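Minimal example, chain plus flavin-adenine dinucleotide.
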Amino acid sequence: MSAPAGGWTTATVAGVRRPIARSVELRLDVHDRVDHLPGQHYVVRLTAEDGYTAQRSYSVASPPGDPLVELFVERLDDGEVSTYLADVVEPGDELEVRGPIGGWFVWDGVTPALLVGGGSGVVPLVAMVRHARDIGRLDLLRVAVSARTLAALPYADELAEAGAQIVLTREARGIRPASRLGGMDLFPLVEPGQTVFVCGSTGFATTATQLLVELGVPATVIRVEQFGPSALELPKR
Ligand SMILES: Cc1cc2nc3c(=O)[nH]c(=O)nc-3n(C[C@H](O)[C@H](O)[C@H](O)COP(=O)(O)OP(=O)(O)OC[C@H]3O[C@@H](n4cnc5c(N)ncnc54)[C@H](O)[C@@H]3O)c2cc1C
């Protein structure tokens, strides 16, 4: 399956919400939009008056059937782009965007999949869950997500409704004490024939991948997207 790809265009900010602290959800009306597949991302480019530009990637949280493209941005205190998106952007603003992008971290809507996400790494997985719900195939997905607290987990209600295994590292949830994602969390979710999508910080992605391999999941079926420091996205003058 080849994934769609879009070039540079503009998007009008149709909605701004802050459903959880230190983050923002942006709903974008993308002009001349190319429909995306769940798991793909957009690049947002900011340009200052002196011509200085900075661009960063953001996964799409909305399913292909949504008329708007939804991004969910975690605000990093010293972040160049995330602080602007979280603090400054308002409905009616125009943003320069490129997308959809990405042909590897993409769910086809047909193959059984295990989704493993940490923190804002759940965003592309939410697009997969929403798409599965839209096409009546939530049965294809197994989901495990991790965050410090439930209040810090993006899309916590939707993920819980979809049956996600929710792992909290700083607070207990039911009978599960606070602890990091472990093999016992993933073991019940692993099934033959799955493609596995892992997304989160570099540390989370490395640990989750290691746990999966230890559980016997072939490395060849594991697809990883890391939201680490953006060394490859240096600002340009
Ligand atoms: C394919 C892809 C999809 C992504 N999707 C999302 C998404 O859906 N939501 C989202 O919030 N982010 C996402 N990211 C991360 C995003 O692209 C930026 O890296 C992030 O918003 C930080 O940019 P910034 O300009 O605010 O910070 P920068 O100015 O680049 O960095 C500020 C400081 O934070 C550190 N840093 C940078 N990125 C991170 C990070 N992710 N975690 C911890 N520390 C970091 C830097 O080393 C630096 O010290 C994605 C990244 C990729 C590659």
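Residues 230-237 have pLDDT under 50 and may be disordered. The radius of gyration is 17 Å.
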